Amino acid sequence: MRYILALDQGTTSSRAILFDHAGQVVAACQQEFRQLFPQPGWVEHDALEVWATQLAVAQKCIQKMPPRRVLNGSYAINSIANSAAADQIAAIGITNQRETTVLWDRQTGQPVAHAIVWQDRRTASRCEQLRAEGHAGMIQQKTGLVLDAYFSATKLEWLLNEVPGVRARAERGELAFGTIDAWLVWNLTGGRVHATDVSNASRTLLFNLHTLQWDDALLELFNIPASVLPAIVPSSGVFAQTDAALLGVAIPIAGMAGDQQAATFGQVCLQPGMAKNTYGTGCFMLMNTGSQPVASQNELLSTVGWQLDKVAYCLEGSVFMGGATIQWLRDGLSIIASANEVQALAQSVPDSGDVYLVPAFTGLGTPHWDPYARGAMLGMTRGTTRAHIARAALEAIALQSADVFAAMSQDAGLGLQELRVDGGASANDLLMQMQADFSGVPVVRPQVLETTALGAAYLAGLAVGFWSGVIEIVSQWQVDRRFEPNISPDDRSAKLARWRKALARAKDWAQD
Ligand code: ADP
What we know:
By secondary structure, the chain is α+β, with helices and mostly antiparallel strands. Helices cover 34% and strands 22% of the residues. The protein has 18 helices and 23 strands. The strands form seven sheets. It has a seven-stranded mixed β-sheet. Strands 3-2-1-5-14-13 form a six-stranded mixed β-sheet, sandwiched between helices. Helix 15 links the parallel strand 21 and strand 22 (443-446). The longest helix has 27 residues, at 386-412. It is globular, with a radius of gyration of 23 Å. The model is unreliable at 77-82 (pLDDT under 50). Adenosine-5'-diphosphate (ADP) binds at residues 10, 12, 280-281, 323-324, 326-327, 339-340, 342-343, 423-425, 427-428, 431.
């Protein structure tokens, strides 16, 4: 067995990546799928399309597998019909967009409606109602999460209440609920296994972080019949075998974790106090807090990281507009033609000229949680150019992440030693230097940036003995580049003070 296949089911595309024993990428395939916006603030996916694209990229990836030398010296040709290709795969690991909610019929496998995506805001008023009724404290204590439409519970409740006939079908035990991990496992096993892993379960608002089980009081509060729920399994372990018809042979499914948790594992942040920040559309920072959940004093989420034998918990902070701020420079302002251009443009000026961009286009996440904040650009003068705006945009990504990092350091009660980074925008050296400067710690970029898929591969590979243990995977992690802080503490304080002033102007804007 030469490979582990990671299925990385993201918000905008499905990807499949083959890793070899050294943790290197051998083949990768990606396919986008439709984003559905039926009403303002609503975001949906067709779950069947999510499954179809995920299966297609897995099959293509197997076809792209390097040919295997056979005994007579010729090369076997890989094809789906040729099970010789797929039988080189020791296990499959799944990682996925989190919180997105699917409800389907156990008999037919048909979803009762489109999946409601994590970004969907349709249940915001329901959350406000529950908050007004005084439930937020209890929910936070049990789940480690804030009461927000981001998580699955109110989305599932909406499907049960609003799709005709669905609640009665659920009460009769005919329907199955799952986040995307569970939906993929169901389909990969031909409907034989209905299971989710602890890290995905911990994003539903229905899961008790302390007992590691579905919580009866929460099920009652959100009116969820227990019959729809998947079994909860660890993140690493052989849970199921794929239906042999799909990939040529039956392959064990042996790893599962939500995308940010998988990335934290892929960055081998396996000791308490180790943290990573992923710079994608948004920025997600997770820190390992060890074997106990830490209740945040600074508006961070407390969540399950993963479960091997034991559970590791994490604190998490989310920035909604990370790399998406650069997309806005490209698509909204048209001041760059591609994201790659932003670094050169920003470096054409020595500083932002005291321009601050607060990219609160969809409100602010950690630590502000202000859904009414809106984007603002401050400090412009007649001398301001698009280069200053580009520089301010990069600074805004780093400054928002610096705020999350500071909140995390306070909660952790220990000075964080360094920040590991990944995601598309972490390729930007200027941005990484800004992060080191504003956070005051070294920022470390690894050689393999596919950390989300790698984390899922590690979880699966450890379960089947492909890797001997965590010591082996820790030794695979290699530094590409280390960025040391390069400004004085005084300059850092001055910069953060200006940023806080800009933030204050943007907060609460959409509220009359
Ligand atoms: P996701 O997984 O959320 O789709 P990726 O990890 O693929 O995100 O990263 C893509 C994001 O990174 C986009 O928002 C893009 O604007 C941003 N990005 C890509 N390259 C750069 C760059 N060189 N500098 C800054 N941002 C970049």
